[in-house]
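New here. Your pick:
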Amino acid sequence: MNDLGTFPITRKWPARHPDRLQLYSLPTPNGVKVSIMLEETGLPYEAHRVSFDTQDQFSAGFLSLSPNNKIPAILDPQGPGGRPLALFESGAILVYLADKTGQLLPRDPAARYQALQWLMFQMGGVGPMFGQLGFFHKFAGKDIEDKRPLERYAAESARLLDVLDRHLKGRAWMMGDDYTIADVAIFPWVRNLVGFYGAGELVHFEDFAEVHRVLDAFAARLAVQRGLQVPAAP
């Protein structure tokens, strides 16, 4: 078994099960992508809560693993070649876990790249735009008198939802019949937009019936329901 004690992050969050993949996260849209993926694949893991309340994300231990001070991050004791592997960035982690397990990413090269394009669509568009809309609608941005930023992010978020809605027509999931990391990446953000951010009315979410349908199917998955609770509150 590989010694995880050489990684500084394990001094702040000791591994009770050092043979398992270590997850450092919170149940945010980016965080739950990885916990849902772990639940879907059945990989044994141990979750550690990176508390924003106590600014754990800026601690030396966390920065040693995730230099961009963002969750989630993982430490896999059984990485490539049997050596430990540390990773940050949720999209990279999803691809790694898909390759490690042979699950939720097509093996056919063309289909693989098509799934990856939708993962990048989430990383480059859905996440940043929905997050900015949440800031300007729910958090400190609501106190800004100039409403143009809110209007801009609402319009762009609605446009992205329309892209998804048109693509999903006649498809069960982003890749058709196959549930993939594209769905794992996209739908936590859709859920957060209309749930936690309460921005459904701003983006006219009722107009996007296909997105609504697939969001409901996503939320009904038991692995999703489990992953949304990880890491659990202390």
In short: The beta strands are 21-25, 45-49, 73-76, 85-88.
